[in-house]
Amino acid sequence: GNVIVGFSAGTGLGANGRAVSWTGGSTTPAILGTLPGVTTPNSAALGVSHNGGVIVGWSDTTNGVLTEAFKWTSGTNMSGLGDLPGGLFFSQANGVSGDGTKIVGFGNNATTNQEAFQWTTGGGMTGLGISGDADSSVANAANGDGSVIVGTEGLTNGSSAAFLWTSALGLQRLQDVLTTIGVTNLAGWQLQEALAVSSDGFTIAGVGLNPNGGREAWVATVPEPSTVGLAMVGACALGYSVIRRRNRR
Q1: For residue range 83-130, what is the model confidence (pLDDT) as tens digits?
Q2: Is 117 exposed, middle or buried (0-12, 13-18, 19+ CB in 10 A)?
C-alpha cells in the first residue's frame, strides 16, 4: 500500500501520458518513462507487486504499431515483454503476482486473437488459452505467488464470462467452477468479469449481471469446499469500463 501506480500527463510531457509511481511521503510521482526508441511515447502503469519493486503496464513500442507489455524494476528500469508467438506486438500487462514473479495480461496470438498470458523470467510469455465459444481472453490479476489467475473471456455472442486459471485446471469459466464445488446461490447470475483475486487465491471479485439484468459487483469467497459462498455487492462498474476501453486500444 505504500506504492501507487498509474499514468500522468504532467508539465513537460505534452499530450502524451507516462507511466508513474508514487511512494508514501513523496510530493510528486516518479516518471517511469517508456520503452526505448519510440518517437511518440505513451505508457501507463497498471499493476505493482506487494513490495513495490515490480511495476507492470503498457508502453508504445518500436516492435510494432500498437503497444507492448512492460516490466519495470528499480534495477533494470523498463523492459518489454514481447508478445505471444506470431503476434503483432499488441500486448499489455494488467497485473503482477504479489511476490513479483509472474506477470499477467493479454497479447495477440498467431491468429491475431487477443489471448490472456502469463509471463515469468524463465519461461517468458505463454498463452492461457481461449474457450471454444469465446474469441478473446484477458488476464486481469494474479494471487500472491501467481498460482491463481483471473480474467475475462469475450464470447462470440457479444457477451463475456469470468475465468479462473490454475496449472491444474487450465482456463475454466469461474461460474462453472463455483457451481461444481457447491455454490447454490448463482441462479440468474452471469459472472462476466473477474478483476481481482486475494493473495491466498480464495477470494475473487468482479462484475456481472444480476438476476434482474442489472450490472452489479460480486465477491466470491472460497475458503474450503464445505463453506463456499458467493456474496453480491451492488456497485457501479465504471472503473472496469475504463480499463476495458484501454484493453481495446
Answers
A1: 999 888 899 999 999 999 999 999 999 887 899 999 999 999 999 999
A2: buried
Average pLDDT value for the chain: 86
3-class SS at 245? Answer: helix
Closest CA to 227 of 197, 183, 169: 183
Q: What whole-number distance in Å separates Cα of residue 154 and Cα of residue 133? A: 9
Task: Please give the Cα distance from 74 to 93 (Å, whole number).
Answer: 18
Q: Where are the alpha helices (DSSP H) in 15-134?
A: none
Name the residue among 100, 61, 68 with its Cα closest to residue 82. Answer: 68
C-alpha cell, 68? 507492448
Phi–psi pair at 246, nearest 5 degrees: -65, -40
Q: How far apart are CA 195 and CA 197, in angstroms?
A: 7
If we measure between CA atoms, which residue out of 87, 84, 88, 93 comes closest to residue 19? 93
Closest CA to 81 of 99, 98, 97, 67: 67
Q: Are 148 and 164 in contact (CB under 8 A)?
A: yes
Tell me which residue has cell 510469455.
125
H helix runs in the chain, sequence order:
174-180, 238-247
Q: Contact, 4 vs 21, CB < 8 A? A: yes
Percent of the chain with pLDDT over 70: 86
